[in-house]
Design brief:
CATH architecture of the largest domain: 3-Layer(aba) Sandwich
Bound molecules: phosphoric acid mono(formamide)ester, norvaline
CATH class of the largest domain: Alpha Beta
CATH superfamily of the largest domain: Aspartate/ornithine carbamoyltransferase
Order of helices and strands: HEHEHHEHEHEHEHEHEHHEHH
CATH topology of the largest domain: Rossmann fold
Number of helices: 13
Shape: globular
Structural class: alpha/beta
Distance between the termini: 12 Å
Number of strands: 9
Strand content: 5-15%
Largest sheet: 5 strands, parallel
Length: 305
């Protein structure tokens, strides 16, 4: 692994190595703290969009491993505006040992990786959110003890998070169902990628419109906001279309007794998820949020050590 840009770039072995490392780093941290395996290492955190989890979990992850993280806000660099992406990559490579970036255009992540001489980590683009996907697999593993054979249902907008989840599910032997309005499903090219990434022919990937059918089948139920960052102009239209896909008590009444509910957060409570479901007994969303730090430490340890 040279960079961490997409779960589709990983082999199943590389993904499992990250999950195993996340497990051991979390357990080490819980029993008194991590060893400073990244002493004197530094990570630039480049943001073109707001963040709570990604910013704090990467920064604290570096601190726990003995390293240093430098937050660079959207207005500070103005990557692609004040300065070209290749030049930002070349300059930062002389100062730091790694670059984590959150961008609008996925091409900016690809350009950073092309022109940087240090590892680049994707902290969300309009295309995908692989650090979130890794965290979510880790959280499911913690709760269910396995991934293979489980079914994940993603209810709502087919977006950057959905894409990383589908890739991650395919690579770890899970089945994946996306329930979304027809115009808001991931494109067919992603379906093809997911099918190619499967580790077994028996795994299924289904794109359907009925959220009840999806919830009935699911061991893991997932949702995310209906309007992602950068799509704010479509918000009113989306608010009209998506209500049948809200995770509420009526919909969740169709779920298996041991199903768990995940949300990458931030949640728009009252839109894609109600308070009763977000704070209900099946929800593991705060464990999931905390796990960002542990899963990403595995990425940092693998790339920067
Ligand atoms: N889930 C996630 O990436 O959260 P932030 O946008 O707060 O970083
Ligand atoms: N799909 C959301 C995820 C936020 C972490 C967005 O891109 O805004």
């Amino acid at each position: 692994m040279q960079h961490f840009l997409s779960l589709a770039d990983l082999t199943a072995d590389e993904l499992w190595n990250l999950l195993d490392l996340a497990t051991s780093l979390k357990s080490e941290w819980k029993s008194g703290g991590n060893r400073p395996i990244l002493a004197n290492k530094s990570l630039a955190l480049v943001f073109q969009k707001p963040s709570l989890r990604t910013r704090v979990s990467f920064e604290m992850g570096m601190v726990h491993l003995g390293g240093y993280a430098l937050y660079l806000s959207p207005n500070e660099i103005k990557m692609g505006g004040r300065e070209s992406v290749p030049d930002v990559a070349r300059v930062l490579s002389g100062y730091v040992d790694g670059i984590m970036a959150r961008v609008f255009e996925h091409d900016h992540i690809l350009q950073l990786a092309e022109y940087a001489s240090v590892p680049v980590i994707n902290g969300l683009s309009d295309f995908n959110h692989p650090a979130q996907g890794l965290t979510d697999l880790f959280t499911i593993l913690e709760n269910r003890g396995k991934l293979e054979g489980l079914t994940m249902a993603y209810i709502g907008d087919g977006n950057n998070v959905t894409r990383s989840l589908m890739y991650g599910a395919a690579l770890t032997g899970m089945n994946f169902i996306s329930a979304a309005p027809a115009d808001y499903q991931l494109p067919g090219s992603d379906y093809e990628t997911g099918m190619e990434m499967r580790v077994s022919d028996s795994q299924t990937i289904d794109f359907i419109s009925d959220p009840v059918l999806a919830v009935r089948e699911a061991d893991v139920i997932y949702t995310d906001v209906w309007t992602s960052m950068g799509q704010e102009a479509e918000s009113a239209e989306r608010l009209k279309i998506f209500p049948p896909y809200q995770l509420n008590e009526k919909l969740i009444a169709n779920s298996k007794s041991d199903a768990i509910i995940l949300h990458c957060l931030p949640a728009h409570r009252g839109e894609e998820i109600t308070d009763a479901v977000a704070d209900g007994e099946k929800s593991v969303m705060f464990q999931q949020a905390h796990n960002r730090m542990h899963a990403q430490k595995a990425i940092l340890a693998t790339l920067l050590q």
